[in-house]
Structures are given as structure tokens and as C-alpha cells.
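Hi support team,

I've been running sequence recovery on a batch of backbones for a student project. Most finish fine, but this one hangs at about 90% for roughly twenty minutes before it completes. I'm not sure whether the input is malformed or the queue is just slow. I've pasted the C-alpha cells below so you can try to reproduce it. Let me know if you need the job ID as well.

Thanks,
M.K.
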């Protein structure tokens, strides 16, 4: 008789894991308050960066959120926007770098880390990630620097900060800006300093799967006042604080968050510390449970990561040694009641957009004189870790699992152990 649930056996677990998003009457009341106020948008321009005029009455939820979130993340300024793609784009746009300047980014990341580069007529140059953390590998950055490089973007992948000791040192040495894509890193810390407070600016996402959410949303955080003022202007279609309403000083956009979203986020922020501590405790516990499993190796929790967000819990699946395709393993795990995911199917540079260089107006090189010969397929040979992670190695578990009990972690471990032990059934 088959043991595995996918072959007709009894599953390890029949109950769902912790639900997401988390909300209660506080969100309901906050939303109703905004609804009844009739003030559904961030009603005063310039607030949060510098006050255009003294405030009257209730403060905007967006402004309150910008201040509170930025402060919690070690930054003086926060500019909230429609999503984390927009905040990355805004920060880069505000820098006015030249056409064809290069930004170094990790090969293992979501597309938004690179669209913000291309949108601004800059060229993304991919660097591989570390095998133990899937964060950008500092030892490979120097080889990618050219005289056109302006910045290194780190992605604090899955909620674990990149190696900010080495990255900040490299950036200082080569006079490069550091951009932190912190879409996964709410409340995270590197050596007790908040992820998002190291670089020129950072960008967080509040899209529905993220560790804090308002359905969609994002925020740019910075300690650079000039950058903050520029981004605030970009968000208001290019207006300037203190100047007339119909005066536009640069090519901006309307990327503004609504008061409804900010009202939700103000409540979600109150939960962030407790939820982050819980995810971290559960993540560490699961790692201890998986320690002895042959063919499974959790990513390493660097001791300098003093707060890990476990936005994604990742372990490495040794497909060649186990002899079962990762896809089949994940399907068997799902049948046992544990939802898992293989993550990105190939490194970012292998997407058709890159291979065919179909960027703005269907073209490349976006007016640069230098990059006609860039062949994104050629990054394959430089990025073996990202290639392997995508092809067969990475297995992702979502953050909401880590809001549950310790016994949930024991179920996850039991399901993995069971599928490994009976994997011969999958080969029949
Ligand atoms: C690494 C990374 N950067 C940026 C983003 C973009 O955020 P948003 O979906 O809010 O635009 C995401 C979203 O999934 C992401 O995973």
C-alpha cells in the first residue's frame, strides 16, 4: 500500500496554515473612519518631507504612515506610493543618471528590481548570488564594475539582509550608490541596524503577499533630504513645494497611495514587530528540525542578520542526489498538506524581454552608445548559483506558514521527511 498522499496514502495534515492577510476590527474601524471623513486621498502636498503649510484638523493617514514607517526603519524620510515597483523607479529617476549608465543587480530577483533601471534608460548588469543566502555575492561585484557603473542594488532576499559590511565597503571604494530593494525586508536588521537604512534609498512593497500589506502599495525610505524632496515632487506629477499648483518642474507621475491603504498600513505596522519575531522564531525552529535531513539544506541564517523577516523560507533541494525532480517533490509535499513553491523558473536575465532586448519602444540599447553588444544570454556562464537555484534547487515556503504554531513547523518537517523517505513511490 502506498504511503504518500499523492499515491493514495493519508496526508500528514488536513488543516490549512495560518491565514493571510491578518486583520481585525482595528483595520475595519480605520477604514470606516477614512470613508466617513470624505478625505480619501493624501490631501496635503509636501507633508512628510517638509510642510508646505501648517496642518489643520486630522493628519493624513498617508503622512502619518510615511513618518512612522520611515522612523521604524532608521530613516528620516518616507514617500509612500502605489507599489514597490514605483518607489524603486522614483528613487532612480530622481538621480538623473546618464543614458547608458549601469546598475549592478542580483540575477536572482523579481523583475521589478530591473524594470526601474530600464525605465530610466540605464542598463542592468547581473551578478550572481551567494549559495548560502541567495543574496548578491559581494565577491563577484568588483568584476562587474565599469566606468559607467553608478550603483549596486541589493535585494534583501526572502527577508535576510545582504552582506552590508562588504557591500558598503565596496561602494565606498568605488564611489557607487547603494540601492536597497527591501520589498521582502520589513522590520529586518543587519547587525541591529535596520535593513533599508544603509543605502542612498530603500524601497519596500506592500503587495498582498508581503509581510505587511494593503493589497498593493510601496514606500521609499531615505536619509537624503534632497532625494526625498525630489521623490515627493515626482509623486505629485513634478510639482514643487511652495510653488503654484499648476507648475510642473520635472517629468513626474501620479504614484500616490490612497488614505484607505495608508489607514490599513498604519494598523499593520503596529503588528509588524510581533509578527516578525514570530516568523523568525518559527523559521529557526524549522531549520533545526530539517537539520539532519539528507538532501535538504535550509539557506543559512547569517549570525549578523539580527532580525530575519522570513518573507520566504528557503531550503535547497538536492535533486541530483535525491533522484526525484523538484517539481514532483513539491507536488507530493502539497498532497501531504504543505504548500511549497520552486520560485523563479530561470534567472531574470533569461526572460524573453532580456533575451530579445525588448525594452522601451521594443528596442535596446535605449539610446546608449555603449551596449549594442550586450547579450543577456551570456550571463548564464557567470551566474551558476542563480541557474542552479532556479533549475532544481530552491524550494520556497510562504511567510504566513511562519505565523502559526510550533506544531505547524513539526508538520512541515514531518511532511518533508515522509516524502523523502518514500520517494521511491514517486518514481513508479
Ligand atoms: C524583490 C522584489 N522587488 C520589488 C518588488 C515590487 O513590488 P510591487 O509588487 O509592490 O511592485 C517585488 C514584488 O514582488 C519583489 O519581490
Amino acid at each position: 500500500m502506498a504511503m504518500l498522499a499523492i499515491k493514495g496514502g493519508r496526508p500528514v495534515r488536513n488543516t490549512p496554515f495560518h491565514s493571510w492577510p491578518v486583520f481585525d476590527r482595528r483595520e475595519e474601524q480605520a477604514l470606516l473612519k477614512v470613508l466617513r471623513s470624505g478625505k480619501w486621498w493624501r490631501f496635503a502636498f509636501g507633508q512628510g518631507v517638509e510642510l508646505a503649510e501648517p496642518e489643520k484638523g486630522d493628519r493624513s493617514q498617508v503622512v502619518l504612515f510615511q513618518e512612522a514607517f520611515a522612523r521604524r526603519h532608521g530613516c528620516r524620510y518616507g514617500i509612500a506610493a502605489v507599489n514597490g515597483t514605483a518607489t524603486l523607479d522614483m528613487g532612480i529617476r530622481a538621480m538623473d543618471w546618464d543614458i547608458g549608465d549601469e546598475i549592478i543587480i542580483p540575477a536572482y530577483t523579481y523583475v521589478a528590481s530591473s524594470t526601474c533601471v530600464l525605465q530610466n534608460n540605464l542598463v542592468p548588469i547581473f551578478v550572481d548570488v551567494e549559495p548560502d543566502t541567495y543574496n548578491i555575492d559581494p565577491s563577484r561585484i568588483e568584476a562587474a564594475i565599469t566606468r559607467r557603473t553608478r550603483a549596486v542594488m541589493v535585494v534583501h532576499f526572502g527577508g535576510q539582509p545582504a552582506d552590508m559590511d562588504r557591500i558598503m565597503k565596496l561602494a565606498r571604494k568605488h564611489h557607487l550608490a547603494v540601492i536597497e530593494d527591501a520589498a521582502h525586508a520589513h522590520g529586518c536588521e543587519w547587525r541591529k541596524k535596520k535593513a533599508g537604512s544603509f543605502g542612498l534609498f530603500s524601497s519596500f512593497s506592500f503587495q498582498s503577499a508581503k509581510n505587511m500589506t494593503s493589497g498593493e502599495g510601496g514606500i521609499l525610505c531615505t536619509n537624503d533630504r534632497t532625494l526625498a524632496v525630489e521623490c515627493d515632487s515626482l509623486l505629485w506629477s513634478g510639482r514643487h513645494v511652495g510653488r503654484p499648483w499648476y507648475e510642473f518642474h520635472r517629468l513626474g507621475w501620479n504614484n500616490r497611495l490612497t488614505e484607505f491603504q495608508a489607514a490599513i498600513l498604519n494598523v499593520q505596522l503596529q503588528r509588524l514587530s510581533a509578527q516578525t519575531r514570530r516568523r523568525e522564531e518559527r523559521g529557526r525552529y524549522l531549520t533545526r528540525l530539517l537539520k539532519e535531513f539528507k538532501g535538504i539544506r535550509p539557506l543559512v541564517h547569517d549570525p549578523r542578520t539580527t532580525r530575519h523577516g522570513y518573507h520566504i523560507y528557503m531550503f535547497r533541494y538536492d535533486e541530483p542526489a535525491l533522484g526525484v525532480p523538484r517539481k514532483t517533490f513539491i507536488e507530493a509535499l502539497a498532497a501531504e498538506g504543505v504548500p511549497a513553491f520552486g520560485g523563479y523558473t530561470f534567472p531574470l536575465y533569461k526572460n524573453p524581454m532580456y533575451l530579445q532586448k525588448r525594452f522601451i519602444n521594443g528596442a535596446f540599447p535605449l539610446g546608449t552608445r555603449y551596449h549594442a553588444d550586450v547579450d543577456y544570454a551570456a550571463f548564464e556562464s557567470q551566474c551558476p548559483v542563480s541557474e542552479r537555484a532556479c533549475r532544481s534547487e530552491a524550494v520556497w515556503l510562504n511567510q504566513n506558514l511562519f505565523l502559526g504554531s510550533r506544531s505547524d513547523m513539526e508538520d512541515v518537517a514531518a511532511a518533508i521527511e515522509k516524502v523523502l523517505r518514500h520517494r521511491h513511490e514517486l518514481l513508479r
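--
Follow-up from support: It reproduced on our side and the slowdown came from queue contention, not your input. The chain has a mean pLDDT of 95. No action needed from you.
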